[in-house]
Predict the structure.
Amino acid sequence: MDDSERIERRISLHEIRILISVVRAGSMGKAAQLLATSQPAISRAIADLEHALGVRLLDRTKVGIEPTAYGAALAERGIVVFDELRRAVRHVEFLADPSAGELHIAATLPLATGFAAAVMNQMSRRYPRVVVQLLSGPSEMAYRALAERRVDLVIARLLAPVDEENVTADILFDEQEVIVAGADNPLSRRRKMTLKELMDERWVLGPKDSPSGTIFVEAFRAAGLQPPHASIVASAAPARLAVVAKGRFLTIVPNSMLTHSAFHAALKRLPVELPTTRRPVAIATLKNRTMNAAAKLFIDLARDAAKPMAKLRW
């Protein structure tokens, strides 16, 4: 019997879970409350782990308990073990009933309210017993949730290189920003126009340091123009579309969001091309992680939904 087999016989998943809880909580007392047990029981479990491994796992500091390098490594891999165990249980449940399951998705807000929403609708129609939980926000938040294994996949535009060592990005289609006006805006009846003609219009835009704000600035500068100032600044793309739908404002949004937006009938894409705004949209998953069965179904539906977008010629 080698050392790893001896250690496997002396430690338990319960002890690993206790270690993870202590590391996350920063104290044995808080971990005991989270696990509905006593602090002495927590202390004994940690002591048993340290004895089995022959190393110190936790250090006491003035602000609480911190893991040693050994404790941090064991807790990190323990999280992976429990994640794989949960996924194995879900897969068994799915095999027993392919129409049921659970899926956790993270998406940037424009895609969450556009393309991803359309795919989730399709998923619900075909597999009504699959529960989908959506987390929407900035791409940094989405990828952090993926790295922490809180979501099965991420749908986002590739505005920066992904961590190719740990993440696989499956490109669905190229996304391009479009300029949008309300259906009643006189500009919506124009068949031709240039970006320069829109300099003096009223704009509702995202913050300058946001991805949409940066793309807007790049589009005007690529045309040799100074970007116009916003009359209204709104961080949420759906809020910008709501303003445009009811007034004489213009905004810039991803084309897929316009296509799938609830405001679609009240909006009109203006005939102005913005080729420098083109970016790929991808589904990102973790490498070396067992794929959730429901995630496979979702990815297949997303690929089908992306085909019309992939065929667009700007």
User: Anything to note?
Assistant: The radius of gyration is 25 Å. DSSP finds twelve helices and twelve strands in the chain. The first strand starts at residue 58 and ends at 61.
